[in-house]
Write a structure and sequence with these properties.
Strand content: under 5%
Number of helices: 7
Distance between the termini: 55 Å
Shape: elongated
Helix content: 55-70%
Radius of gyration: 21 Å
Length: 183
């Protein structure tokens, strides 16, 4: 049985979403571990935990690290809600070099089956006005989620998100070690 080519991007999405959620879990575990922060462990807003962790650890947490944690939270939210165009913006803020995936969208609405075939062939041939770059419109435009999944997958954005989340988790891990000796 042949596997659809987009399956790799579904798997990358699953890993990215999991890594993003893992950062949240680590922050909540850190807060729950420290008596001064325990009341924040179950707060609804993760940014409240980030703020309290930043205050508690003071100079042990640089401004860049605080920014990384905040941007990774925002990135996680955009990935979980499949708002891939804004997720790409958050990756750029984290220092990832934006790259186009080159995915194009062909509007086949209201065409006959034969018309769909001709327009698809013309788009593949690169004829003007037969397709538009997916990246030219936000994910939230109707019919864009699948195209944007392909776009961020092809561009390597999901892999970049995984690495960003792992970097954020490493920051939290370091804080957990610092807390053993006292901040």
């Amino acid at each position: 049985m042949q596997v659809p080519p987009h399956t790799i991007y579904l798997d990358q999405y699953k890993v990215a979403a999991g890594e993003g959620a893992f950062v949240e879990l680590k922050l909540r575990l850190l807060a729950d571990k420290l008596p001064a922060l325990q009341l924040y462990a179950h707060t609804q807003r993760l940014e409240d935990i980030e703020a309290e962790v930043g205050t508690y650890f003071g100079s042990a947490l640089s401004d860049d690290e605080k920014n990384t944690l905040a941007l990774c939270r925002q990135l996680r939210n955009k990935i979980l809600h499949c708002n891939f165009s804004v997720a790409r913006e958050k990756l750029a803020e984290l220092g990832a070099k934006p790259r186009a995936g080159g995915v194009r969208k062909v509007d086949l609405a209201e065409l006959s089956p034969a018309g769909m075939l001709f327009k698809t062939r013309d788009a593949i041939a690169g004829k003007p006005d037969t397709s538009v770059a997916v990246a030219a419109s936000p994910t939230t435009d109707a019919g864009n989620v699948f195209g944007w999944l392909l776009e961020v997958g092809e561009a390597g954005d999901l892999l970049a998100a995984i690495e960003a989340f792992r970097g954020a988790a490493a920051i939290v891990d370091r804080l957990a070690v610092v807390s053993v000796g006292g901040a």
